[in-house]
Design goal:
This protein is an alpha+beta fold. It has a domain of 147 residues: EvaA sugar 2,3-dehydratase subunit (Nucleoside Triphosphate Pyrophosphohydrolase). Helix content is 16%, strand content 36%. It has nine helices and 24 strands. Strands 6, 7, 8, 9, 10, 11 and 12 form a seven-stranded mixed beta sheet that branches. Strands 18, 19, 20, 21, 22, 23 and 24 form a seven-stranded mixed beta sheet that branches. A hairpin with a 6-residue loop joins strand 2 and strand 3. Helix 5 crosses helix 9. The protein is globular. The two termini are 22 Å apart.
Amino acid sequence: MRIKDAAAFRTWFAGRSEAHRYRVTPAPLHDLDGWYTDPESGDIGHRSGRFFSVEGLRYSRQEPDAASWTQPIIRQPENGVLGVLVTWFDGVPHLLMQAKMEPGNINTLQLSPTVQATYSNYTRVHRGSAVRYIDHFLRPGARDRVHYDALQSEQGSWFLGKRNRNMVVETTGDIPVHEDFCWVPRPVMAELLRIDNLVNMDSRTVLAGLPDGPGGNPAPGRAAEKPLHDTAALLHWFTGAKVRHRPERTTIPLNRVGGWRRDDGRGEIVHASGRYFRVIGVDVEADSREVTSWSQPMLAPVGRGVIAFISKEIHGQRHLLVQARAEAGTFDAVELGPTVQCNPGNLAADAPRPPYLETVLTARPKQILFDTVHSEEGGRFYHAENRYLVLDGDEVPLDVPEDYTWMTVRQLTRAGRIGNLVDVEARTLLASVRTLPGHGAVR
């Protein structure tokens, strides 16, 4: 099916929601079918040895007065595929998107990329049905052209070194479209990104890597770039941040994670303070999935996070205030992140506030250029939401702390097409920023 506008999309999407039966039921971790808790370590794993596990992590940094802690974390060493097929109708690029259920989605059904599959899924470890359209990404044909292919990180606070292969493939072939999929015009996708909890995380990370114009070439009519910092200066700054943030990460048994305990009554793992997240179990039924029923553990964050870019016009061109951010599970020492990326509810009363958090929380309505609540990865995180914002920060000084710098949208877009440079939260915002007039918007 080909969607013409947002109204037609809403009709199609509502129909897909009504067409299937879904059920997600909380279940104690010790009762999850196919999963076990190791009696020695307390680690939670699948009996097949595949999919993922929940283990313990000790994290510290070598710089003076740096925080250190232990926590549960998801370990999923295999790389999945997140891919979007693109084709052209009437001179407009269209994206093949999927209405997909994930057990952690707060509204059950969200808009997914053409392919969203772990290695275990597409190699059919679960003995389920084949992943549709996967061959366009694993074995592109003569009528397929790969525009974007990078191993990209995912949430470093909750995943240990997790990466997925992000891909955009343009096709001129005749693609049979399953009823749970539709072709969405790129301008309509820009509208859908402004709707709360609709476009899922896996779609957003791939959308950040979409090429600018036909054939992946820069969009016509672009003004010459006038960045505050050139590439050499940015690389110098980023390398310095990597040297400053020298993480020490050690996996430890889950039952040795300090401050966390297993609540046998509720069958979940919680932090003594009630903050951060819980490790819970769920039983799932979904008649539209490759496997129609399964059980699994999930991380359930406490409260809603705030993720924001401050934007400023410099030399007549919009820049974004970018952070060199270190997280416990980040694949490399640091990645480029948004200006603000935190859950204010996790901050202790006497803890220092992250730079620019108050600027974001107290922004005037006229400063807010983008403001949407998006869900995080619904396959591993239960009802995880963040408020994503882009603010006009023309009053923010050019001088910034050493872990921050100004980059143009195009500079960050180019960095985002290289694996392990831009974190997934920044890529979500980048996909949205590129739709804003005057921010390097693509057509």
